[in-house]
Amino acid sequence: MALKIALNGAGGRMGRRIADLAANAGHEIVAPIDHKFIGEPFGSVINDHRFRSEVASEYNGGADVLVDFSLPEGFRARLAECLKHGTPLVSGTTGLTADDFAGLDEAAKTIPVLWAPNMSVGVNLLFALAKQAAASLPETYDIEIVEMHHRRKVDAPSGTALGLLKAVCAGNGRNPTEVVKHGREGHTGERTRKEIGMHTLRGGDVVGDHTVVFATEGERIELTHKASSRDTFAAGAVRAAEWLAGKKPGVYGMHEVLGLPG
């Protein structure tokens, strides 16, 4: 079914790819939203004249689903507007706070919402594998998470890295906020058994690399995903929008969209 899609962050790198893939799938971008290009024809902004709507500063209804890849402040505004107009929300915005997630849970009483730190098939499989490995391996396996992104990424660690931390802790019953160690410097003392190291690299044009390391005496297991194109994320976002449109109010995840273990 062809959808009418509102797109927040429409002029950004992800927004442009989502627009292209959505149009290729027969969907229409009826409400492109981006504060940098207000009033400009969206087709001119992204050099694709299939798109005739003007870029807006807010969402005023009329879409089957709103897809959001922006910054936390943009996410908050669009969530409020989706509630006002009864529009399902798919969001991949990272850097959100505990209050933002509480707001999503509250909104889900009225509209269907789907937030995911990463919408690619491979990364969501990595979440499932990391959780399974953490549940299967004894505490003698030390766990470290390493991520790398392009130099322009503004939040750290990445939402995907935090998703991996959550997945690992779901597997071994640890509390993420109690065990995470963000980098190490100076005389740190011996590593504790329960801590999980989190390490962030930034440079160049890296789309996204993530590795979970399980290391013990005599062996090391590494689970790695490397993205070479943003299209893998954009395609997942379009797939999520197709899946979420028409669903009942509630909180949904990419594992449901992709048929993976939760």
Features:
Rossmann fold, Dihydrodipicolinate Reductase, domain 2, 2 domains, 9 helices
SSE arrangement:
Layout: E1 4-8, H1 13-24, E2 28-33, H2 42-45, E3 65-68, H3 72-85, E4 89-91, H4 98-107, E5 112-115, H5 121-136, E6 142-149, H6 159-172, H7 176-179, E7 180-182, E8 196-202, E9 208-216, E10 219-227, H8 231-244, E11 250-252, H9 254-258
Parallel strand pairs: 1-2, 1-3, 3-4, 4-5, 5-11, 6-8, 7-8
Antiparallel strand pairs: 6-9, 9-10
Helix pairs in contact: 1-8, 3-4, 5-6
Fraction of residues in H or I helices: 25-40%
Mean pLDDT: 96
* Class of secondary structure makeup: alpha/beta
**How many helices?**
9
Overview of this structure, please?
It is a single chain. The protein is α/β, with parallel strands linked by helices. The chain folds into 2 domains: 4-115 and 230-258, 3-Layer(aba) Sandwich (Rossmann fold); 121-227, Dihydrodipicolinate Reductase, domain 2 (2-Layer Sandwich). The protein is 35% helix and 23% strand. The chain is built from 9 helices and 11 strands. Strands 2-1-3-4-5-11 form a 6-stranded parallel sheet, with helices on both faces. Strands 7-8-6-9-10 form a 5-stranded mixed sheet. Helix 4 links the parallel strand 4 (89-91) and strand 5. Helix 3 (72-85) packs parallel to helix 4. The longest helix is centred in the middle third of the chain and has 16 residues, at 121-136. The chain is elongated. The mean pLDDT is 96.
In short:
By secondary structure, the protein is α/β, with parallel strands linked by helices. The protein is 35% helix and 23% strand.
